[in-house]
């Protein structure tokens, strides 16, 4: 494939034409210079303009007191590109050739670093970008967001020598598509702040200007390699991507059959629906035919396949084909593809910045995993918030552990639950080992309190449960800064871990085996004087003790309704009904990416480029996040 195409290879011809125009004196009032020269504001007339030339080897700006036209040596291509960019930036013209432009600030920086020269004069670069855009569908993104139809049409017009204006327009569209796709691969298309009410997933490291990355990729012909590098390479993301590709293949073959509703089907039964169940499960590799037997009998081989299907769809794996199981089987492949797309987007929000050791709470899956040195080393069941007490989505870091904790009940729980229980049962306080304290921490006789006066109203006292195995927080809790008063803790209600769906809390995360987790965290916290053995001694003493971690452990509270576990795709109910908002945003045209470039104060003026920070990003300031005692430890 040739290194360049006719897009801008006729530089000599253009310059010759310009010399010819010059030789006749430029007498026409509609000369080429007047058409393409950027308009200068009146306050700059007669003023000397500060411009910038960019060293093409290192991309660093060099200032000269010359006019923009002199900077370009009279090249109308460069002047026309600058004019387009200034119109987009200053005049808010957010489209070119009726195609929306989403990365105006990025493009201004990108082209200025390249002296406003065209960037897409290499056919191989064009081919790489078009291929990458088409493949964006495999990551749950929409190729048409990146001008695919228009750019494909242009690629087919190359041999017809499009006009100079068209060439410039397409050059800008190619750049817009490249930057937009790269940013979406790296950070996601959807702004989580606009679709998640209770979340804090902003990057923990700043988003520095990517202009050098994109410009280097274009100059070195590394379009595909750069975009591949910007995509997440974490196993969780790669597995979801492979699952999406596979389910798209299933869709291309017609999907799977619907299973008729009917009475619950139990092992050993005969039913006309059994063949349909076999066909349905075979398509998703839950069932592999063995041959022989009664086609309508619900035999042990099919029962095992149904149990596997139930486990992978967060249903009780009892082998009974009831209403819930049939409904899960009848979710179409198109709906499963949507679910995978949504969770690929969620993963893009956080996966790049994950350190090698961390905790991940899978809210929708009711599970917790501890990763150490990039490997999962421990897994536990958890309970999460009820739909009306949703566990929020955020990232933080565990900074300390409390052994033998007390429980101070939050005002909301006191008002809505505890006071009504006390009014109903005067012995409730004694049964729950709750003490009443005034604002100075002094004990108050509960018999002196007119409880009925505080029903549904603010309660001016503190209710505290002493430490012990029957304490609502159990024997241990794990604290991490967050504005939601959420934490991990033990619980005396162990029987609830036997349930498949475990949404029972007020928002906090109850861990099935929290003492094991505490020992592992302390064992991997070098220099901490509280060793696992010391922790056990403190627990046995019953004394409430706070253990500060030497190295805070990052924690991610994530909401994934689809993931891959042990090479099997797991689909989960949308417990908090959060998928639809993300899917709608994914299917909506992109929002403009706001970069705050150091642009000229007025048209025609060039200034030095500085590294930019995306002004739409807010960072987690952990040093400003303080424990909001007493309630940070008491939500349950």
Account of the 3D structure:
The protein is α+β, with helices and mostly antiparallel strands and 636 residues long. It folds into three domains: 11-230, no CATH class; 274-331, Muramoyl-pentapeptide Carboxypeptidase, domain 1; 355-563, L,D-transpeptidase catalytic domain-like, CATH 2.40.440.10. The chain is 36% helix and 14% strand. It is built from 21 helices and 19 strands. It has helices spanning 11-23, 32-36, 68-71, 76-90, 104-113, 123-135, 148-156, 164-187, 192-195, 211-220, 223-230, 235-252, 274-283, 300-312, 323-329, 333-350, 411-424, 428-431, 514-523, 532-541, 579-586; strands at residues 51-54, 61-64, 95-96, 99-100, 199-200, 358-362, 367-372, 375-385, 393-403, 407-408, 434-437, 462-465, 476-479, 488-489, 503-505, 509-511, 545-558, 562-565, 568-571. Strands 6-7-8-16-14-13-9-17 form an eight-stranded mixed beta barrel. The chain has a three-stranded antiparallel β-sheet with strand order 10-12-11. It has a two-stranded antiparallel ribbon with strand order 1-2. Strand 7 (367-372) and strand 8 (375-385) form a beta hairpin. Helix 4 (76-90) runs antiparallel to helix 5 and helix 4 (76-90) crosses helix 8 (164-187). The chain starts with 10 loop residues before the first helix and ends in a 50-residue tail after the last helix. Mean pLDDT is 83; it is low at 1-72 and 596-635.
């Amino acid at each position: 494939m040739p290194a360049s195409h006719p897009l801008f290879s006729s530089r000599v011809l253009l310059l010759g034409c310009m010399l010819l125009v010059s030789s006749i004196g430029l007498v026409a009032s509609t000369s080429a210079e007047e058409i393409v020269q950027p308009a200068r504001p009146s306050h700059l007339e007669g003023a000397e303009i500060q411009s910038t030339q960019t060293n093409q080897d290192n991309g660093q700006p060099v200032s000269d007191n010359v006019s923009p036209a002199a900077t370009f040596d009279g090249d109308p291509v460069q002047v026309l590109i600058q004019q387009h960019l200034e119109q987009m930036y200053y005049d808010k013209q957010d489209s070119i050739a009726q195609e929306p432009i989403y990365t105006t600030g990025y493009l201004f920086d990108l082209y200025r670093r390249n002296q406003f020269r065209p960037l897409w004069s290499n056919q191989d670069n064009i081919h790489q970008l078009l291929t990458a855009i088409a493949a964006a569908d495999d990551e749950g993104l929409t190729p048409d967001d990146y001008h695919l139809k228009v750019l494909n049409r242009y690629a087919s017009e190359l041999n017809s020598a499009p006009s100079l204006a068209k060439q410039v327009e397409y050059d800008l569209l190619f750049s817009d598509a490249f930057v937009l796709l790269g940013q979406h691969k790296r950070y996601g298309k959807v702004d989580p702040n606009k679709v998640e009410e209770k979340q804090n997933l902003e990057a923990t490291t700043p988003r520095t200007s990517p202009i050098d990355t994109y410009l280097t990729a274009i100059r070195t012909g590394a379009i595909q390699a750069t975009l591949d590098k910007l995509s997440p390479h974490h196993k969780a993301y790669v597995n979801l991507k492979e699952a999406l590709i596979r389910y798209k293949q299933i869709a291309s073959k017609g999907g799977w059959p619907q299973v008729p509703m009917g009475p619950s089907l139990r092992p050993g039964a005969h039913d006309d629906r059994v063949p349909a169940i076999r066909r349905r499960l075979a398509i998703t590799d839950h069932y592999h035919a063995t041959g022989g037997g009664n086609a309508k009998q619900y035999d042990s081989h099919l029962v095992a396949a149904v149990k596997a299907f139930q486990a992978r769809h967060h249903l009780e794996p009892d082998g009974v084909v009831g209403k819930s199981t049939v409904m899960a089987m009848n979710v179409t492949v198109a709906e499963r593809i949507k679910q995978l797309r949504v969770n690929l987007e969620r993963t893009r929000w956080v996966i790049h910045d994950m350190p090698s050791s961390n905790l991940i709470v899978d809210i929708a899956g009711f599970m917790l995993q501890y990763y150490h040195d990039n490997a999962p080393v421990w897994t536990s069941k958890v309970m999460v918030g009820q739909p009306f007490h949703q566990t929020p989505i955020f990232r933080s870091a565990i900074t300390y552990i409390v052994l033998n904790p007390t429980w101070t009940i939050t005002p909301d729980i006191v008002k809505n639950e505890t006071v009504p229980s006390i009014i109903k049962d005067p012995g409730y306080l004694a049964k729950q080992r709750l003490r009443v304290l005034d604002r100075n921490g002094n004990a108050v006789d509960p018999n002196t309190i007119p409880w009925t006066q505080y029903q549904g109203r603010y309660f001016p006292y503190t209710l505290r449960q002493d430490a012990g195995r029957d304490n609502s927080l159990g024997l241990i809790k794990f604290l991490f800064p967050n504005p939601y008063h959420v934490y991990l803790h033990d619980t005396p209600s162990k029987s609830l871990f036997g349930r498949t769906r475990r949404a029972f809390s007020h928002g906090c995360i109850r861990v099935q085996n929290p003492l094991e987790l505490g020992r592992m965290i302390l064992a991997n916290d070098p220099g901490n004087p509280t060793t696992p053995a010391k922790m056990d001694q403190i627990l046995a003493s019953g004394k409430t003790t706070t253990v500060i971690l030497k190295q805070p452990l990052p924690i991610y509270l994530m909401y994934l309704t689809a993931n891959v576990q042990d090479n099997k795709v797991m689909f989960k109910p949308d417990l908090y009904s959060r998928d639809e908002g993300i899917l709608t945003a994914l299917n909506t045209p992109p929002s403009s990416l706001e970069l705050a470039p150091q642009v000229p104060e007025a048209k025609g003026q060039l200034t030095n480029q500085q590294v930019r920070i995306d002004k739409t990003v807010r960072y987690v300031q952990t040093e400003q996040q303080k424990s909001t005692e007493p309630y940070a430890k008491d939500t349950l």
